[in-house]
Amino acid sequence: MNNNRFLERFQFATKRDLVLFFVKIASMTIMLVKGAQYFDFPARIKQQYFYYGIAGPAFFFAIWITSLISAYMCSFIRIFVVRLFMFIVFFVSTLSAITYFKVSGNLLMYDTLYVLLENARFAGSAIHEYLPEMIEPFFVSLLAFSILLRPPQLPPILQFKRINKSGTVALVLFPYVFMSAFCIARGGYGLSQTPPQYCVPSLLAVIESERLYFGENQRMEIPDKALIKSNKQQPNIVLIVDESMRGDYLDLNNSRLKLLPALDSHKDRYINFGLASSGGNMSAESNQILRYGANPENFMETFKGNPYIWNYAHKAGYTTVLLEGQASEGFLNDRLTKKECAGIDKFIYIKGENSFEKDQEIAILIKKFLAEKDNKKPYFIYAIKSGMHFPYDVLVPQGERIYQTSARGFEVISRDDMIKSYCNAIHYVNNRFFEELDTNIDLSTSIIFYTSDHGQNLLDNGRRITHGSKENVICYEGLVPLLVATDIPEYRSSFLSAATLNKNKASHFNIFPTILSIWNYDHAYINKNHGKTLFEKIVMPRQFLTGLISVNRFRFGKFTPISWVSIPDTVVSR
């Protein structure tokens, strides 16, 4: 009799309950194991023990054990809304983490997740580019569907009657609180090789909490003495920031390409500084450096504290214009904030069906502003081109391609095809842009700067991450062009001398101080807060930043989230 009662404690009410139980357990186990298939547990445990003693492996195992318990429990919780929420969390987290690893060879951690969130507008392009890599992760993630199945009636041994519904939900969600707190204590780190179903949401929670908590940095006021009074007429200034234009794929730097005949036909108009370095290898970082004018010799302090370029323009008597060719109307791009936007007089979202149409409209608007004769103030125009963001082949109609590439389908694109696709996009989008820009443009009272936000990795190291790498970064991700065009004699002469002096030596860091010098700000003030202009001899090696340079992390202890990547002197114009 006692044996029968003992066995009854393990018996399911029906065979259906038994099947459901094993389906749920098997699905959760396979999903967790497959999501962790790229983990090197022995190496991770050894590393944790080396740095933190027994506490390191203890925390690591605690995270895994609580995650496993939570994963199993959430599948049997009877509140459908909670199960639906957990299904969405598990599916999205598993899909994103495994796909990112298959594409990049790296884990989806704090830095990379932050970057992906900031570039969510390119999600459609990313899905198109990496669809083959998403097939297996999709089916693994689909195992989370078992959570939505009705929970079976469990045998008495597995029923925890003393835990009410609220307590069950709390146990299911506990790993997220535990892992978020642990991540905060480690300044964004500490969750490497933990279950992605819990790691990714925890990182997301920390990132969003930081955004709400820290807000914006306080920026210094521009002292009155910084601006030197002058009676000479100020020129219009245009800063064009292209998307993904690699410097050595510009015809003026590589005469063999013949991708931009329109630019070549007007090459005498442009003063070429050769191959320059971007501020960072991501759009947001580079555009921030261009808008804040950070001094590389005192980077973090000046990056966080310098006034915006719009404030300098206003003080110098300019009307400020932003031509936004990437973000949809109502959205802010490249870490623009509402506070910074208060300094922009004309914020214009560029409309168009594709990069070609948007960039054509930008060229037309630039010419329209520069042609105005009755404007009381000169213009400072910051133009963000739509450009050549990957995947390149979708940017170019079949009839406009100068190179034919192999059929894509679900094949992994070859380096040769990738380069050809990139060249097609440059020819179609940028050749027409320069053709439109240089037709009937009046530069007698204006100066145009042209550069790109970053370069491109065209499978140069075998990795399909085109830019924004945080590990194994190659120099081509920060290799950009730098051109200047003006018909104002005194400035043209100065820029010609500067291009001779600093050919293949300039960077984004030199553009902001150069503009301030044109606006007649004090030279000593510029050098202290913003670094050297293009008119001075540049001795600092070409280099760009990788890492989240604008992030205020919750952290205990010292932490440096950025690193510099050098562009060797051997990388020169061909």
Q: What's the alpha carbon Rg, rounded to whole Å?
A: 28 Å
Mean pLDDT: 87
Residue share in helix? 40-55%
Q: Based on the structure given, which CATH architecture of the largest domain is correct?
A: 3-Layer(aba) Sandwich
H/E series: HHHHHHHHHHEHEHHHEHEHEHEEHHHEE
Q: Give the full name of the CATH homologous superfamily of the largest domain.
A: Alkaline Phosphatase, subunit A
General form: elongated
Ends apart, CA distance between termini: 91 Å
Tally of discrete structural domains: 2
Strand order of the biggest β-sheet: 2-7-6-1-5-3-4
Q: Which topology of the largest domain does CATH recognise?
A: Alkaline Phosphatase, subunit A
Q: How many helices?
A: 20
Classify the beta-strand content into a percent band. Answer: 5-15%
The level 1 CATH classification of the largest domain is Alpha Beta
Count every beta strand, where a strand is a DSSP E run of 2 or more residues: 9
Low-confidence region ranges: none
- Please identify the structural class as seen in this structure: alpha/beta
Can you summarize the main beta sheet?
A: 7 strands, mixed
Q: What would you note in describing this structure?
A:
It is a single chain. With 574 residues, this protein is α/β, with parallel strands linked by helices. The protein has two domains: 2-214, no CATH class; 237-566, Alkaline Phosphatase, subunit A. 44% of the residues lie in helices and 10% in strands. It has 20 helices and nine strands. It has a seven-stranded mixed sheet with strand order 2-7-6-1-5-3-4, sandwiched between helices. A two-stranded antiparallel sheet has the order 8-9. Strand 3 (319-324), helix 15 (338-341) and strand 4 (346-349) form a beta-alpha-beta unit.
